[in-house]
Amino acid sequence: MRRILSVFSRDILSSRRDFILAYMVIAPILLAVGLKFFIPGVESAALQFAIHEKLGKEVIAEFERYGKVEVYSTVERIEERVGTIDDIAGITRNEAGTYRVILEGNESHDTKEMAYMIIRDMTADGSLDVRFEVTDIGYRLSPVAGIGSASLILTAIIIGGMVIGFNMIEEKQSETMKALNVTPLTRLEFIAGKSMIGFLLPLVQVYVMLWILGLLNVNKAMILVMTVVSSMIAVIVGFLVGLMSSNQISGIANMKILFLIPSTSIIGAILLPADKHFLLYWSPFYWSFIGFREIITAAAVWRQVGVYACWILGLTLIAFLIMRGRIRKGLV
Questions:
Q1: Largest CB tally within 10 Å, which of 2, 119, 226, 228?
Q2: What are the extents of the domains in the chain?
Q3: Poorest-confidence range of 151-165, 171-185, 288-302?
């Protein structure tokens, strides 16, 4: 165990010294910070109204049936609120008793038209212009958050494998790997030590990203299982990159080529209709992506997570059996 931890410690030091490796470590965190600015909250996805308090409780209650209501005491404050960055319609009434809809001019079609239609509904003499049936499907997360967060988590896992690969490239260039052949360190200990960063780094990054994105209410045990299982294929890919590349330039080129597989899996899972998803069943990254997406959107149950994990483990085993000869030869 001491020798395994020694290999792991060396990888940590190498990741801090090398600019590319240091960037890989912080890149998912920086991407999560960037994604945070593009995730709309629940409020921004719903209709919003700024209501003058003099309209009374009945009018306020009517608008609350259709969206979020903010009550203000003056028309000036309503106009100030309407002028902010989000979509909101101001509702007041002039001295003649006529309703006024205050808009900035860049609101969405629904924000503007729904305000008019609700007022027409209230002022109609027993005749409803609008009929609504509101169905709550329990979805409280933006699609941007579900897809973006799952994609970032998968990216962090893959980068964990890439860190293994680039550490191996650095050791090949410094001829450290040749020196290891004359030490008591066995091949299995070397692989175990190298693999540790590929499992531990994504775990840290994933939970930090969930905190940044405000998704700490997800099932953390499910996230843990999917992260560990998904890291297995990333570790294999990392070893391949390290063994196939003679320097960092070729390592970057190989990394770009291998990134096509998870990229295709994510894009396919998003764009293909459900009945065509069988075309992606060959990719363990597809199962990782849909697993993380369903966990983040609270749509997953343990049985589903178990099925996804089995697919990932089975496909990872097949990939390892196919590539073990190449890995064994490169470690000699």
A1: 226
A2: 2-39+142-331, 42-123
A3: 171-185
Listed in sequence order, the residues at least 6 apart from 156 whose beta carbon sits closer than 8 Å to its beta carbon are 28, 201, 202, 205, 206, 209
Give dist(CA 92, CA 97) in Å, integer.
Answer: 9
pLDDT digits (tens, 9 = 90+) for 229-265: 999 998 888 888 887 777 878 888 888 888 888 889 9
Please tell me the distance from the alpha carbon of residue 163 to that of residue 177, in angstroms, as a whole number. Answer: 16
pLDDT tier at 176, thresholds 50, 70, 90: low
Contact 236, 316 (CB under 8 A): yes
Is the pLDDT reported for residue 166 higher than 80? yes
The answer to whether 289 and 266 are in contact (CB under 8 A) is yes
What does each C-alpha distance from 316 to 232, 256, 320, 323 come to in angstroms?
A: 7, 20, 6, 10
Query: What is the spatial distance between Cα 250 and Cα 244, in angstroms, rounded to a whole number?
Result: 8
- Looking from the CA of 75 toward its CB, the CA atoms found within 13 Å total 9
Question: What crossing angle do the helices spanning 2-17 and 19-36 adopt, rounded to 10°?
Answer: 70
- Number of other residues whose CB lies within 10 A of the CB of residue 7: 21
What is the rounded distance in angstroms from the CA atom of residue 213 to the CA atom of residue 219?
15
